[in-house]
User: Fold these one by one.
Assistant:
Number 1:
Amino acid sequence: MDQHATDLLTDWSALRSGIPPVWARYTDLIVERASGSWIETVDGERYLDYTCGIGVTNTGHAQPRVVAAIAEQAARGIHLQQNIVHHQPGLELHRRLPLRFPNPRAGQEYGLFLSNSGAEAVEAAVKLAKAATRRPLVIAFRGGFHGRTHGAMALTSSNVKYRAHFEPLMGGVHFVPYPYPLRMGGDAAALAATLDALDELFATVVAPDDVAAFVVEPVLGEGGYVVPPDGFLPAVRELADRHGILLAVDEVQSGYARTGRFFATQWTDTTPDIVIMAKGIASGLPLSGIMAARPLLDQLAPGTHGGTYGGNAVACAAALATLDVIDEERLADRAHRLGGRLLDGLRVRAEGKACVAEVRGRGMMIAIELAEGDALTPRPDLAKALLREAMARKLLLLTCGTRGQVVRIIPPLVTTDDEVDLAIGIIGDSLEAIGA
Ligand SMILES: Cc1ncc(COP(=O)(O)O)c(C=O)c1O
């Protein structure tokens, strides 16, 4: 332990109390260093980190290539402001990332706008949709999480705490249910319920030609790690086309190889109009962005959107290195393979547990929903207890779900078979310990 850490030792609790409570926190761990799948605390404890900093460190903590790219660019210039100059990593990222646009239209050129956080990218998507269509409304899906700035918060419905006491929010947002197979009678019934709700909305409340965009997560994140029926995105695309509405997919949590494809949208053949990205984009440096076809993206006139730090040079260098690592280590394939191993192992350990309503996931976006009886009464108490037991066994996990009843498992995509097996064992033992 270095001197800095030793000094901190004397006064940790005082220092911790200086952080405002708005930062709801899962643990009190103070990190000495983090590398790959592991976090080491100042008192020498090692934890297997299957939180990934909420789905950010897909390439693992302190991935050497990313670290080197950050160091190299920092030495050449940290802040080379986008409105003033160009910098090389930014130019290169604007060339390379749009080549990843999911299911691109033939002959179409795509472009990229960069900002700092997921919420900011959501703001950019909504502003672009409004500016391009000259329409005022947005349709979002219940249980969705899109961030906590005023505009993004208006699209968020994964928990009332994100909205409570902040009204009035941005107007013009309407919600329909996200298709949630476990809670809506299976895939076909869930999809039908969502489409019926849209039909009803258009018949009774919202004129479709007032709608600028659908904003939707290809796999529901904070709302419960729900994999929608296969027909969901194509059906929304079809409605969007019928009414001249733009389709914005929020890939902030599901993107960057997390689900076994570079973007989760690629599990379908749906071509979105706007892709919203953040989290895994730069392996932990604050970077986010949207992609769209150039004629659409160019509808945002000069100066109508932006920000001092958007497209920061060091963050862009980290993003380029992140793309290299994802490609060279074939992290999408790895997420698919290891995600399957994790899901299968967890299902075996969850078998016969009355309060495990479902073990589900796509790639390395995996959830255990804790709920009871035919009514599927949510058991957030069990979800919390499972996190505590796992942490006692040195595995870090998170919760999600509209009632906090879902345990989400977000391994780094570089995790190993052995680490996956270790996690299965710990989660299995923790399920036993809480009497699920
Ligand atoms: C799907 C989705 N969209 C947007 C956001 C907001 O991102 P940020 O916290 O970077 O503002 C999140 C964050 O969890 C997210 O999961």
Number 2:
Amino acid sequence: MQFAKIPGQIALKRRLISSVQSGHIPHAQLFSGPEGSAALALSIAYAQYIACENRSPEDSCGSCSSCIKMQKLIHPDLHFSLPVNWVNPTTSLHTAPFLPQWREAFLRNPFLSIEEWSGYISLDGKKPLISAYEAHEIIKVLQYVSVESEYKFMIVWLPEFMNLSAANRILKTLEEPTPKTLIILVTRAYDSLLTTIRSRTQLIKVLPFNVADATKVLVDQFNADPAKAKQLADITEGNIAEALWMLESGDEAGDLLDLFRNWMQYCYGFKIDSLVALAEKVHKKEREWQKSFLSYSLYMIRQTMVMNNNSSLNRLSPAEFDFINKFRQFFHPGNYEQIVEYIEEAARQIDRNGSSKIIFFDVSLLISDVFRKEKATKQNS
Ligand SMILES: [Zn+2]
């Protein structure tokens, strides 16, 4: 992957390139960026740049034999450690058997999420994991000298899926790897990593894509219609993994609007039975859908605030405009932040594999409570 294939991130690319040019490549780095960001893609572009036989001051050449192998993820010095789970419970759990699927998944979407990856390896609800056995494999692989490139690279995707013994096992390697080794951990959950891991790695913060850059990726790399791409980039705030899921799961925006409309009406009317039924309905959907629904809800609430400030600035479809126009009196500066905070917390809990039924019901009660308190205040005044 060349840096040029990743839009934006100018300052960060410059920083990575200058580490190579100055010969100061920290041996253990932690690329931290949210889901659907360029963190993983950048780590691979960085490795490709270091290994390129003909690099320029801006990018790898993309055509030398090293670049060609890097671009297919088949370079013998490029190693991966990934969250996986048993296909066959009698074997030790490690990454190697999953590499063909990994190449397919990454080459299709370099900004993929753990949910998308889980689909490739048919986890069937099993939790993905980087096992202690895998940690042993990491250490073993890094003991060898590199085969073709000056450096050997180990990219550990989503170290937050390491269990404690795996994490502890690699600490020494992170601290003192063999010479000419670069270990890159790519995380979307920096706060959940052990401090001992964080303290042994150089932090590289990767910002989410902005809406313009995410739109560009969706149009250029996934042939999305520009207006649709822009809308999805907006709804997901630049999370390409989520935007792509929404794009490919069909025209869901109409369904999401209906559900959001019902949800807010039930919350406002404090209709407990309907809220229970809604939580059950949401619970039956896949996790990606649940995340999309919460992102969409946040998007709609943000758009309401935009509309309350200046109705010409909103980005809504006519149906969305119509609903929000009726509902906008209910979202205002006094409750907006609180409701957004509740929904964002629900999204975080979904991300941490919480029970969606309980999470949705709880957040519904919290939002109902905001509306109920307001109604009480109005009645008393
Ligand atoms: Zn090259």
Number 3:
Amino acid sequence: MSTLRDQLAALPSFPHPLPVLDPEQAPEDPHELFSRWFQDAIDSGQRQPHAMTFTSIDGEAAVGRTLIVKDIDERGFHFSTHRTSRKGQQIEANPRASMIFFWRESGRQVRVTGVVHALSREESERDWQARPSYTGSPNPDWQLYALEPREFEFMQAREDRNHTRVEYIRHGPTWSHGTVDTPAG
Ligand SMILES: Cc1cc2nc3c(=O)[nH]c(=O)nc-3n(C[C@H](O)[C@H](O)[C@H](O)COP(=O)(O)O)c2cc1C
């Protein structure tokens, strides 16, 4: 009789073939690599390439949930939600947060860590009006935010499971980067 463990063990973790990330070729600016991977995910027709796991801090514990990224500009990675939601209250108390993107068809994951800023009321209202469920009433509780990145970790899965990871850390206006050598699964 097949156990759940056997079923899970038989599932492939990653597709074949996988793209390669050469750390020597990593650009100075992580936004460039992010844009390249994001555009690849969009162009190749991956489902919901703009969905990510957004993690905020509830007291001592990290709490994650799926959100949609709405835009990316010089202020950061935009997302929107209700200010009075749990995540809204958590951001209010502690603006540190992260986003994890997982593009399964290319075996790629990116973690973006930083600080959340609320964007303007006008932009929040525009975002609210663009929702399919908009009925014409304004919603002062709806808020557009930007996660201003301080760190990025790019992971490219490899078939030998020796996944390639490149980490970027911001120092004021510039970024440093290098490979991450701790075990990657
Ligand atoms: C694919 C997907 C996209 C979602 N996008 C959003 C979003 O953009 N904004 C949002 O507030 N909730 C979104 N949700 C719902 C959240 O995951 C979450 O359940 C909800 O916001 C309440 O979270 P909270 O109680 O931690 O604040 C999405 C859920 C899924 C599955």
Number 4:
Amino acid sequence: MIQYHEPLFRPPSEARSLIIQITLGCSWNKCSFCEMYTSKQFTARKEEEVFADIDAFLPYADQIRRVFLADGDPLVLSTRRLLRILDKLKTTFPNLQRVSTYASPSNLARKSNEELKELYEAGLTLLYVGIESGDSKVLECIQKGETFETTIEGLNKSKAIGMNSSVMIINGVGGTALSEQHAINSAKVLNETQPKYASTLVLTAHKGLEHYKNRFLGEFEELNQVQLFTELQLFMQHLELEETIFRSDHASNNLVLKGVLGKDKERFLEQIQLALDQPSLANLRSGFLKGF
Ligand code: SF4
């Protein structure tokens, strides 16, 4: 078996996928809320090492259907290099159905339409994009290196050539002062891009609130539980999605929402209202009622 370079992360829905690390860390590594790769220096792994990792799974080649390319932003690699890796995966695993990776809107903007099409045709069909917020001010405060416009551009560029996106928004990431614009503009980004999958999670300050505040470019006041639900409610009210599979079931979410938007929008809004009005009756995770 292969030796992974820890820490290793993957989206929850890739739990049963083979993970191949083609880069280590994140080339950006600045987002205020993210501690995933702060212990790692960004490196593009040598091709022979990546190929050796893939070959290590030859005994299970027939069983491998999904591969997730790690770490933070493999799309920073040249298209030629990525195509060689995708080709190696395809020739090694005859039943491969899907290759996915994390991507940022800037990664996507730097690739031409032709390059993205080549990657898609070579098997890269799903991108996990941490939008975090659709609001440019919030994005500036959290040092995301994106704006409302670049996020929409990146997502629509990959969508136009057939790639699916799974996007994520962070409830509470902008603090109390920016909560309303965060909710509304995040909904607008989703409306403009109509992603295949969307999810929300709640801001978690892994190294403590003071550490997050120090990395947040501006004043940050944490949202309490009622404010978090109110922000989620406003976000949901502004969503106009046609067919997006929506999940808010990360461990950080106090209220679990699962369904398809738009058809389940009214049901979600009822669940959020119930959580605000009568938290004891809502489908809240145990232990969170103490926040009221
Ligand atoms: S781009 Fe992604 S992995 Fe990199 S620092 Fe930001 S959130 Fe973390």
